[in-house]
Each structure stands twice: as structure tokens, then as C-alpha cells.
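Whiteboard transcription, Tuesday session. T.W. wrote the C-alpha cells on the left side:
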């Protein structure tokens, strides 16, 4: 790569800035993924052109047709022969910085972070075929990363744009050699899903597509959009990987599962164990845990995530693979814990100072959701026994 070490110049384009804490804080990073042609660039254009008052750095793999967005408000600041350069930076009038890079987004982000303090949020748009899981893992709980970029950046959330016209068909047909195609991995690995282009389909189609999405990922929040029209607060600053802010009305976990409003919502949802092309989700109600149950739960998760087998069984030939897990549960002692996991990485974090149900508004009964492959009845029963032993 030529000019690999050249640091992009960030010009103050006059965009309004938000108040920043006196305390040093890390910059949130949002990953945008989505099906080919679903509307990712449309969403990015919206972020880049809206007068939201934030200085947002958007990183794209390729500019493609995005280079002509709001042409009048964009100044191309790259120097030299752009055809020879593998990266390019654009300054926008609203304070956004647009960065295109052909290879790893990490290199671009490292350069951006040398301009620390110059922006409030980073948006990373992946290509239509990208699986967001490995990218999310890079930014979350990666020890090497934590000692480097992790000091400056934290993963805020993964947003997936789904095509309301072709999305359902794509999900149903998406079946590659290992049984989980990219579109399913994208849905499984996302915290927020924009069901875009709803202007082109009827209400029944929308409902059916949403149903398929919920079957794959019951933990994600779904918004129906036209031209990726979404209030940015619904996709940025969502703290999907945080154990903080739980009592501040911005619950990070989106643990409201489909069907929560129903009277049976405090029951395990065995029958709602879905299977689409090898990918399944399992959500389980978690009663307040004693110390032994807590320890057993931790061991259970470790075994399932790291050894791809159910504790007590030696057979790991069942293709057990966890792509994402989330949970919120209480101990009998009144403490609240959050579980977050991306692939084999996970953490269980105590929610500091928020043990009282009254203060959090959270139910005494917790929930844990796993999304992945091979989550059969056997796995559900095993976890159920651990939690109620
Ligand atoms: N009717 C309609 N068209 C839309 C909507 N959103 C996006 N489009 C159009 O769909 C086409 C694809 O949108 P893009 O934003 O380029 O999609 P993308 O996901 O970035 O595409 P790739 O990068 O190729 O994967 C464009 O022509 C958009 O104008 C929508 O809500 N309704």
C-alpha cells in the first residue's frame, strides 16, 4: 500500500460539535453490515449528510458511488494521484469525515485515532458479503486490541440493513458449505436490524420477513425503514456491548424478546427454538442464581463456546457453534449481571450499584439468549438443568 503511513488531515469543516466530557472517554464504533444492495450506502449517505451535530468518521471499504454524495458539500482532501492510493479521505460540511480504504479497516482506524478527539463516533461500513462477527470480535474483548486501539475505541453496536424485497428469500436460500451463509451470520451478529425498502412490499411480506429475522435473532431490535430513514439515536450510542447505562432507560441489551408481551413470557421458550438453514436461537429464562449455579453457568458457557460441546457430554460432533450470546440475570444475593458474547469471546460483568430491582426497573427473572448452530433441545435442557439445579 502506498502512503500507508500518511496521516489524513482532518480539516475543521465547521460542523457543530457535541459537548465532550472532561474525562477522557473512548470513541464508540458502529459496524454497519447488510445484504448486497439492501441500503447500506443509503444509510451511510444519510449519516454523512444529515445535520446531526456530531463529528462522525465513516470508514468504507470502497467509495463506489458514494463519492458523489452531496457533491457540493464535500471537499476531496486527498493529495497526489488518487488512482494510485488505496485510501482517500473526504471532509464534509457537517463535520463528518469519510474514509475509504481497500484493506483492513483497522489500519484506517489507527490513522483516524491519531486525530483523537476530532470526532465523536466511528462508523465502519462493511461489504455486503462480510460476516460482522470477526470484525466485532476485533473490537471487543480482544486482548491485543485492548492494549492498543481499545484504549481509544469501544464497540457500540452492529447494525444490519436487510432488503425487505429480497431479504427473506435470501435468508431462506442462504446455505453455503458450512451451513450458515453470510446473510444469516449478519442477522445473527447484529444488535439492530433495519428492514429497509418497506415502501416496495406489502404489510404481509414485511411481517413474514420480520418473523424470519426474529427466528434467527430474537435479541435484535428491528426497525422498518424507507431509504434507511432512521433516527440516528436508534443505531448509534446504543451501548449494545456495555454493561453500563442499564438503569438509564437505554437498556443496552435489547433483551425484550419477541413475545415478551404475552402472558407466558416468563416461561422458557422451548417451542420457539427455530431452525433456518442450520442457524438456531435459544432463549432461556434465568431465575436468580445461587453461587454454585452461577459458577456452573459460567462453566457451561465456557464449555459450549470454547469446546463446542455440552458439559457432561464428550461428543462434540454435533456442530455446536455460538455466534452471539447475551444475557441479563440476577443472583439470589440481589446482584445483577450482564452476559455478552461474540463467538468464543464472552464476559459476565456485574452491573455496579444496580442490584435493587426497584432501582433498575428490571424483573427479578433474567434471560439468556444464544444464537448459533446446533442449539438443539439437548442443549436447552442442559442449560435449563444448570440454572435450576
Ligand atoms: N425503493 C427504495 N429504494 C431504496 C431504498 N433504500 C435504498 N434504495 C435503493 O436501492 C439501491 C441500493 O441501495 P444501496 O444503498 O446502494 O445498497 P447497498 O447495500 O449499499 O449496496 P451494496 O454496497 O452493493 O451492497 C439504490 O438504488 C438505492 O437508491 C428504499 O427504502 N426504497
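and on the right, the sequence the group agreed on:
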Amino acid at each position: 500500500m502506498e502512503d500507508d503511513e500518511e496521516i489524513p488531515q482532518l480539516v475543521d469543516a465547521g460542523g457543530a460539535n457535541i459537548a465532550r466530557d472532561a474525562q477522557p472517554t473512548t470513541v464508540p464504533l458502529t459496524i454497519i453490515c447488510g445484504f448486497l444492495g439492501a441500503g447500506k450506502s443509503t444509510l451511510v449517505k444519510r449519516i454523512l449528510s444529515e445535520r446531526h451535530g456530531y463529528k462522525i468518521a465513516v470508514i468504507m471499504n470502497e467509495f463506489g458511488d458514494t463519492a458523489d454524495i452531496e457533491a457540493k458539500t464535500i471537499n476531496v482532501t486527498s493529495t497526489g494521484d488518487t488512482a494510485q492510493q488505496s485510501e482517500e479521505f473526504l471532509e464534509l460540511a457537517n463535520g463528518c469525515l469519510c474514509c475509504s480504504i481497500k484493506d483492513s479497516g483497522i489500519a484506517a482506524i489507527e490513522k483516524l485515532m491519531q486525530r483523537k478527539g476530532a470526532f465523536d463516533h466511528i462508523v465502519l461500513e462493511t461489504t455486503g458479503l462480510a460476516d460482522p462477527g470477526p470484525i466485532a470480535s476485533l473490537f471487543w474483548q480482544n486482548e491485543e486490541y485492548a492494549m492498543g486501539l481499545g484504549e481509544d475505541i469501544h464497540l457500540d453496536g452492529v447494525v444490519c440493513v436487510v432488503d425487505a424485497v429480497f431479504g427473506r428469500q435470501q435468508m431462506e436460500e442462504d446455505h453455503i458449505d458450512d451451513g450458515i451463509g453470510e446473510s444469516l451470520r449478519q442477522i445473527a451478529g447484529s444488535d439492530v436490524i433495519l428492514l429497509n425498502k418497506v415502501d416496495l412490499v406489502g404489510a404481509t411480506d414485511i411481517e413474514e420477513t420480520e418473523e424470519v429475522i426474529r427466528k434467527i435473532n430474537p435479541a435484535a431490535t428491528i426497525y422498518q425503514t424507507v431509504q434507511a430513514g432512521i433516527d440516528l439515536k436508534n443505531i448509534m450510542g446504543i451501548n449494545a456491548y456495555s454493561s453500563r447505562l442499564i438503569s438509564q432507560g437505554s437498556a443496552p441489551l435489547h433483551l425484550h424478546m419477541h413475545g415478551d408481551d404475552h402472558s407466558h413470557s416468563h416461561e422458557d421458550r422451548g417451542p420457539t427454538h427455530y431452525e433456518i438453514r442450520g442457524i438456531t436461537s435459544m432463549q432461556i429464562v434465568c431465575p436468580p442464581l445461587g453461587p454454585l449455579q452461577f459458577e456452573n453457568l459460567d462453566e457451561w458457557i465456557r464449555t459450549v463456546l470454547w469446546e463446542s460441546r455440552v458439559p457432561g457430554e464428550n461428543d462434540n460432533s454435533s456442530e455446536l457453534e455460538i455466534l452471539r450470546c447475551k444475557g441479563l440475570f440476577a443472583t439470589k444475593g440481589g446482584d445483577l449481571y450482564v452476559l455478552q458474547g461474540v463467538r468464543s469471546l464472552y464476559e459476565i460483568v456485574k452491573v455496579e450499584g444496580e442490584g435493587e430491582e426497584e432501582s433498575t426497573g428490571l424483573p427479578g427473572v433474567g434471560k439468556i439468549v444464544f444464537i448459533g448452530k446446533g442449539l438443539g433441545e439437548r442443549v436447552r435442557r442442559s442449560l435449563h438443568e444448570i440454572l435450576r439445579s
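Someone added at the bottom: The CA atoms of residues 190 and 268 lie 23 Å apart.
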